From TrEMBL:
Taxonomy, superkingdom: Eukaryota
Entry-linked InterPro entries: Leu-rich_rpt, LRR_dom_sf, StomDev_PlantInt_Reg
Designated name of the protein: Uncharacterized protein
Record's keyword annotation contains Repeat: yes
Key words, A-Z: Leucine-rich repeat, Repeat
Length: 229
């Protein structure tokens, strides 16, 4: 097939995705966000090996999508937020080395963020908020090139890994409504592009570092309901 892009955003589409899409093997973009599509992703989707943009946000899809999605090795933009997807995030996500956007917020994903996310060295925007994720934030996130990291409304524990502060292009860091502990390290002062820092409703403690005063671009800074001294 010769279709390169299919964009059917907010078109009142319902029903399921049809396996016949597999014939569009030169498809670069499939954007179907804001519809009422439902059911599981069909296995034949994995045959769209040229796909660079897949946007299925704000639909009614269910099931564990990862066996199919991790076959799409050309993906740069993967947006599946606000569906009913579930299951663990597999370590095999590391094969998607072209990813710049990984948006999986507002689903029912469980388990930990895989350490293999650190293999995604050009990943800029990681949106995992409003899931049922647990465990610690992986140190390996420091290997990414994060600009936006939104992980609020989960059940993450442990401390903010020092390596996260090496993402010096970080503009938004939202970790509110988790079970995070420890202190905020003075290295946070190296995030000079930070505009949005929200860490409310956790169990952080100790004094806030003076280096926060270096963050002159901060527009949102929310830290209530912690144990700061």
């Amino acid at each position: 097939g010769f279709a390169i892009r299919i964009e059917l955003r907010s078109n009142d589409l319902d029903g399921t995705l049809q396996p016949e899409l597999r014939v569009l093997n030169s498809l670069l973009e499939l954007s179907l966000n804001g519809n009422s599509l439902q059911g599981n992703l069909f296995p034949e989707l994995a045959e769209l090996s040229s796909l660079q943009v897949l946007d299925l946000e704000e639909n009614l899809f269910v099931g564990n999508p990862w066996e199919i999605l991790s076959s799409l090795k050309s993906l740069a933009i993967l947006r599946i937020s606000f569906n009913g997807f579930s299951g663990d995030l597999p370590s095999g996500l590391s094969v998607l080395t072209n990813l710049v956007d990984l948006w999986i917020a507002g689903n029912a994903f469980v388990g930990e963020l895989p350490t293999t996310l650190g293999s995604l060295s050009i990943l800029q925007n990681l949106l995992v908020y409003s899931n049922d994720l647990t465990g610690t934030l992986p140190t390996e996130l420091g290997n990414c090139d994060l600009n936006i990291f939104l992980a609020y409304e989960n059940s993450f524990n442990g401390s903010i890994p020092d390596s996260l502060y090496s993402n010096t292009d970080l503009a938004a860091l939202r970790l509110e409504n988790n079970q995070l502990t420890g202190t905020v390290d003075s290295k946070i002062g190296s995030l000079l592009d930070l505009e949005d820092l929200r860490i409310s409703n956790n169990h952080f403690s100790g004094p806030l570092p003076h280096s926060i005063s270096s963050l002159t671009k901060l527009r949102n800074f929310l830290l209530r309901n912690n144990d700061f001294t």
